[in-house]
Specification:
Strand order of the largest sheet: 9-6-8-7-11-12-10
Distance between the termini: 73 Å
Radius of gyration: 33 Å
Largest sheet: 7 strands, antiparallel
Oligomer: single chain
Structural class: alpha+beta
Shape: globular
Strand content: 15-25%
Length: 906
């Protein structure tokens, strides 16, 4: 609300209005301010003027407050959808500060006392000052454990909380003085330490931890009570002590529950044998339980934190029941189940404005745990009000906080709704009916009993469990190559997880209602699974480590098993060609697939391109395949320019001078068969720098295209054969030390890593270009500037741009996926064409760069980038060969670089 300039809203009466703030001062709203909004209709006619004071907008002493749901009748803002829908808005933005320092403050000890005091002291010291505190974000011990936080200081054994600070100024000296002030504040706290980020990348690393806080709910299948409150800064220390005390009480309660549940089970337990001996042991366990509960009642903080009494009880009971296998197994289940029901209040806060986010992870299929969590949330709300705070600063009231609003806060918005929506068209019942929480339904993954059996039968249980931890944070969204709303591509990983969950819920419902096991609804799963390049980039930012790429592969495999998977003829033909290793078969197939095929496609693209964008033809797959001209593959394979070997033979290429190292080069399909200039350039670079090269038998495929196309059996067959061949090669050359295994393709690198090739050759798997540059003798002189495209499957691990810049090569990163994605361009041209459009738009936006060449390090990307206009794609190995030897390397036969070669049979 502070920074809004204007917005358009459609109200319940069906009319649209524009609301404009008058005389915005370019800052946050203060308590003494007068804030004026003008409301006009769609014709521009003035409807009314609304005046608000800072007191109307938020409670005095609070940085945030969204509990006023009326705001003198201001439409849309803080109404939670109860009067209309805001369709667009304009906000004021502020210039970035010139200088910034990022600090990470860590609090050690057994309680949160120092943390609360430090937050209050910092907030007061830098209130409305220069330098300013731009961000002050806190998270507590529960989050520290959930995200596996790495401690930076060594001031104690127990890290209790972390506070991240961004301090900014437009003057470096002022900023430095601010940091000194911060150090002075912390000097009196002996269990608190601060680390200042030395670089921007280190500062980003500090904040990466803050972005992973969604991991707190991983152990409860991503379900949690997610609330927020706002407190005066003076009361933060009191509140953190309150949370600390509640968490201790819950630990005591949970440990008592462990003892009670075990004792109750032993009362009714029936052993497999010797029941007459059990009765006495149960009596001993009851006596022990009574004594342990007495100790729990007076237990120290340390004892409760460590769970000592419950652990001792469990250990002694297990020892006394040695030999009763079934009972011990059930006791272990009870211990684990009860322990997982521990209620924990986890807090993180925008500490500078007193906005505290309170999360209580809870298992949604445990009614008793849900009830206790709700009671705990109510305790938090009551404490916030008691500390002169409010029950919401960002999240709104929803349906769980309604009972914590005072009657006046409820009556005013009701009177407003009587005026603008008397029929209660918008969000009926919301913010008006106290019992609405008992009349809503939220589906969830229970995975219990019958449902679990259905999922297991449909091979869906593994898939369901993999997405169950998704916390819907959306951090995967900006990284996903297939997320492009401008062209109707919305399937980023979070949305796919939501859609997949809904499909599984629907399948469970239909199966139980109709007793049908055909699972026909899962046909829709293909649309979800196909929207993925299997790049795994979402995994890097996921707070709960969900790999959406592997989930897509699992989904495609399930579809294949159920005969729901569609694989076009073009994709099947390509896979058959890649699986074929016989030289004769390759020679016979190549003229049709890689010579006549591209000529036909390019001709059709030239002649039919005007039709491909028409509404009728745009939905036809055959027309989608010819929207753009694909590049021509090379005239011959690598094997046409090196001595031919058989399937049980490897080729040893010796350099002109004594070898400085021995490398194993795995060309892969793209570099060996389609764009053989990549492998030729790679061999030229290696041999010209006197590296001995060992090549595998002809036409080995790493198997990756088969894995992502759900050809599981063929993939496993190829991988097994590759492992056998590579092991036999290594055994044949047992007298040699391999310096590295080299690839010129990211998917080949991923596959070889999964095959443990590094262990087979006892050497790392590396990108050919990086290896050559690390071993070059003479500096390179770049001939021109160019673009750089980082592949989805990047053998340089996102280091290509930086690597080129260290060589003095002037590169501009061209963002987004190239759109080829291996065989995806053949299987789903409707998806990949839209991705190509985005890539072309990015190129067009950089036309002022006036660069004609784009470097990459992926054969598949050469295919995708070759569809772009006004740019020529070049593999990095080719570019390096040109920089080393000019264009002559293309004409110079490889045999001229080889003193001798040897064909070795294994």
């Amino acid at each position: 609300m502070d920074n809004v300039l204007s917005y358009n809203i459609v109200m319940a009466d069906g009319c649209s209005y524009t609301v404009t703030r008058k005389h915005h001062p370019g800052r946050k709203i203060f308590y003494s301010d007068l804030v004026t909004f003008l409301v006009t209709d769609h014709t521009g006619r003035k409807i009314k003027t609304i005046d608000l004071t800072g007191e109307d907008i938020r409670k005095k002493g609070l940085g945030k407050d969204v509990t006023n749901k009326c705001l003198n009748g201001l439409p849309g803002i803080q109404k939670e959808g109860c009067d209309g829908i805001i369709t667009s808005a304009r906000f004021i933005l502020y210039p970035q500060f010139s200088f910034k320092k990022t600090g990470c403050i860590e609090f050690f000890g057994n309680d949160m006392t120092e943390a609360g005091q430090v937050i209050t002291a910092i907030s007061k010291a830098f209130a409305n000052s220069d330098p300013a505190i731009m961000a002050l974000e806190h998270f507590d011990e529960a989050y520290i454990r959930a995200i596996r936080y790495k401690t930076k200081q060594a001031l104690g054994n127990r890290l209790k909380a972390v506070l991240l600070v961004d301090m900014v100024s437009n003057d470096q000296a002022t900023l430095d003085q601010g940091v000194a002030t911060l150090e002075t504040i912390l000097a009196s706290f002996d269990r608190t330490g601060m680390t200042i980020a030395r670089t921007e990348s280190q500062a980003q690393r500090f904040w990466e931890d803050r972005k992973r806080l969604g991991a707190i709910a991983a152990h409860t299948n991503a379900f949690k009570l997610n609330e927020d409150i706002v407190l005066p800064l003076d009361s933060l220390a009191d509140f953190v002590r309150f949370v600390d005390q509640v968490n201790l009480e819950e630990k005591a309660f949970n440990q008592a529950q462990i003892i009670d549940n075990m004792t109750a089970y032993l009362d009714r337990a029936i052993p497999l044998a010797d029941p007459q001996w059990l009765k006495k042991k149960v009596g001993q366990a009851k006596d022990l339980a009574w004594a342990t509960r007495k100790k729990l009642a007076i237990a120290s903080r340390d004892a409760l934190e460590a769970g000592i009494h419950a652990k001792n009880f469990y250990a002694r009971v297990k020892e006394s029941l040695r030999g009763y296998t079934l009972i011990l197994e059930n006791l272990e289940k009870i211990h684990h189940t009860t322990q997982s029901r521990l209620i924990v209040i986890a807090t993180h806060m925008h500490a500078g404005d007193g906005n505290v986010h309170v999360n209580i992870p809870v298992l949604s299929n445990d009614r008793e745990m849900m009830k206790r969590a709700a009671v705990t949330a109510d305790r938090v709300m009551k404490k916030a009000v008691a500390l002169n705070g409010v029950v919401s600063g960002e999240h709104g009231i929803g349906i769980t906080k309604f009972k914590h609003l005072d009657p006046a806060s409820v009556q005013a918005p009701e009177q407003y709704r009587d005026q603008v929506d008397p029929g209660r068209v918008m969000n009926p019942g919301k913010l008006s009916e106290p019992d609405i929480i008992h009349r809503v339904f939220t589906p969830s993954f229970n995975l219990l009993k019958l449902e679990a059996r259905i999922l297991k039968h449909g091979s869906l249980s593994h898939l369901a469990l993999n997405i169950a931890n998704c916390v819907r944070c959306g951090k995967c969204k900006p990284l996903c190559p297939v997320f492009f709303p401008d062209r109707n591509l919305f399937f980023h990983p979070r949305n796919k997880n939501l859609a997949l969950g809904s499909l599984i819920e629907a399948m469970l419902y239909i199966t139980q209602r109709t007793q049908s096991t055909g699972f026909q609804i899962l046909k829709n799963l293909e649309q979800i699974a196909d929207h993925c390049t299997i790049c795994h980039r979402c995994l890097d930012k996921c707070p709960v480590n969900i790999d959406s790429g592997n989930i897509s592969i699992d989904a495609r495999t399930i579809l294949k098993t159920m005969d729901f998977k569609h694989t076009p003829l073009s994709t099947r033909t390509t896979l058959a060609y890649l699986a074929e290793k016989r030289p004769l078969a390759n020679r016979l197939a190549r003229p049709w697939l890689l010579e006549a095929g591209p000529v036909l496609q390019r001709t059709c693209a030239t002649l039919l391109s005007p039709l491909t964008e028409t509404k009728f033809f745009a939905q036809t797959r055959s027309m989608q395949l010819v929207r753009t001209r694909m590049p021509r593959p090379d005239a011959a394979t690598l094997r046409a320019v090196v001595p031919l070997t058989q399937k049980n033979q490897t080729l040893v290429l010796e350099p002109p001078a004594p070898a400085v190292s021995t490398v194993f080069y795995f060309p892969g399909c793209g570099s060996e068969r389609i764009f053989s200039r990549i492998s030729r350039a790679s061999l030229f670079l290696l041999l010209s720098q006197n590296h001995r090269v060992i090549l595998p038998p002809p036409f080995l495929c790493c198997g990756y295209p088969f894995r992502v196309n759900a050809r599981t059996r063929k993939y496993q067959e190829l991988v097994l054969k590759n492992i056998i061949i590579l092991n036999q090669i290594r055994e044949m050359f047992h007298d040699l030390v391999f310096d590295t295994v080299l690839v010129s393709c990211g998917t080949c690198m991923e596959s070889l890593v999964q095959m443990d090739v590094a262990q087979i050759f006892d050497s790392p798997v590396e990108d050919i270009s990086r290896y050559v540059l690390n071993h070059r003798e003479n500096p390179l002189i770049p001939d021109s500037s160019c673009f750089y495209h980082a592949p989805c499957h990047d053998s340089l691990k996102d280091g290509g741009e930086a690597l080129l810049k260290t060589l003095g090569i002037e590169v501009t990163l061209l963002p987004f996926c190239c759109s080829e994605a291996g065989t995806m361009a053949l299987s789903r041209p409707d998806i990949t064409h839209n991705m190509l459009v985005r890539k072309q738009w990015a190129l067009n936006a950089l036309k002022k760069e006036n660069k004609k060449k784009i470097l990459t390090n992926c054969p598949s990307c050469l295919q995708g980038l070759g569809r772009l206009r006004d740019v020529t794609p070049v593999h990095l190995a080719e570019e390096l060969a040109t920089l080393f030897a000019g264009s002559q390397w293309r004409q110079k036969p490889l045999k001229d670089l080889t003193d001798s070669f040897e064909t070795v049979t294994f």
